[in-house]
Amino acid sequence: MEGVLLTPLKQIYHPKGDVFHGMKKSDPGFTDFGEAYFSTVHPGEVKPWKKHLRMTLNLVVPVGKIRFVMHDDRPDSPTQGQTLAVEIGPDNYQRLTVSPGIWMAFEGLNDGLNLVLNLADMEHEPQEVERADLDKFQYIY
Length: 141
Description:
- The protein is mainly beta.
- It has one domain (about 5-135): Sandwich (Jelly Rolls), CATH 2.60.120.10.
- About 25% of the residues are buried.
- Helices cover about 0% and strands about 45% of the residues.
- The radius of gyration is 15 Å and the shape is globular.
């Protein structure tokens, strides 16, 4: 999908504790740094559609497993009308970069903690996000 990038990330295993890479400023998908925050998703729960108007998301799931579903309704996009689902977590450790203007919903897939880190390129501004109920677009299970 135009405006979506998956970047494989390194996991360095160590007997006293592992290192999970997140992002470097030289990585593909890096545009700027605004804030980093963590969010949890309860098992089987779906957080409904959200579209950022200016923020680029860089999502990493170091704990659990999360399904991200993205829908492109941008009128000038070559992938307009397409829906894409991606599942990431330690077993498929990648960073998901989502450009502004793409709708996204996501679901916790593991029974325990599902934790996502967003390395956003700007600070949160409530007025730059649109929200919609889950039935707005087809959610891929």
